[in-house]
Structure formats: structure tokens, C-alpha cells
């Protein structure tokens, strides 16, 4: 089993936290993982992206030329990286911020998720990344949903552990949306 994921958005959307969370969950499950973050010097508002490779066997390189799954949290990310998704792959798109009219890929599955709307419905716009994680985990099974709560204890600083229930609620909302879309 091997899962490779590319997440892109702008600083402040929690791109790196989402990748870090998935990495910790994979480690807890005894899988091999590679996490490769990249962001602009300005962080908040600038480009942010990361790759996560989860595998039962060896993980050679954290660099993914053509990911199996891409999560695009904003328009720039889809415009820049949407064409790189491997044929037969999946592109999970935040339709709250992304217009798909010009994105023409019939060789991949496009999962349209109004992530900002879901996060706002939960009462916190900052939960967009956790909604995305929920969709990804429900759709791919890369890590178990139950493992994510434990992984949040590692991914979040201790002073933010009080937010774990809210994060889990957003992950669950994303997973439920993904399951409803495939039913």
C-alpha cells in the first residue's frame, strides 16, 4: 500500500498542519511516512504546500512529480498544480474559493467540497484544513479516522489541545461529506 498526497493553499489555511497530522497518524499506525513542507517566507497569505507519502514499505523520496491525490484549497493552487495529478488520480477541491469552469480533466476524479462553507457551519473558518483531511481519509483510507484524534495531540502544541474536539468535529464533517458524495 502506498498513498501520496500533495496539499496546496495559502499560508493561514493550515496546509502544513494537515500534512503533519496525516504524517503523525501514519506513524502511530506503524506505517512509513515522508512529510515535505514548503512555504513562502511571508507564511500567512503566501503560498503553502506539502507532500505526504504514506507506505507499508520503503518511502524513497518526498518529492512527488505527479501525485495520486491533490488537495487544492485555493484557486492559485488548482491553477498551478491541478494539471499534475496522475491520470486516474483524485483532486479534492475547495469549491468555496475555487472556480472549476476552466479546469478540464476528464481523466481524474474531482471531488468538489465547499470546505469554507462547512467550516463556517461548524463555527470556525480555520477548520478548512481539517475538513479537507476528513474528505481525504474517508475517500482514500490512507490512515484510520480514529487515529487522527491521537495524532492531533502530537501535531498541535499542548496549549491548543483544547481545540482537539473542534478539529475532530471538522474531520468528521469532511468525512461525512465525502461519504455522502460517493453514496
From TrEMBL:
Residues 11-176 form the Pyruvate/ketoisovalerate oxidoreductase catalytic domain. The keyword Oxidoreductase applies. Keywords: Oxidoreductase. InterPro entries: 2-oxoglutarate_synth_KorC (IPR052554), Pyrv/ketoisovalerate_OxRed_cat (IPR019752), Pyrv_flavodox_OxRed_cen (IPR002869). This is 2-oxoacid:acceptor oxidoreductase family protein.
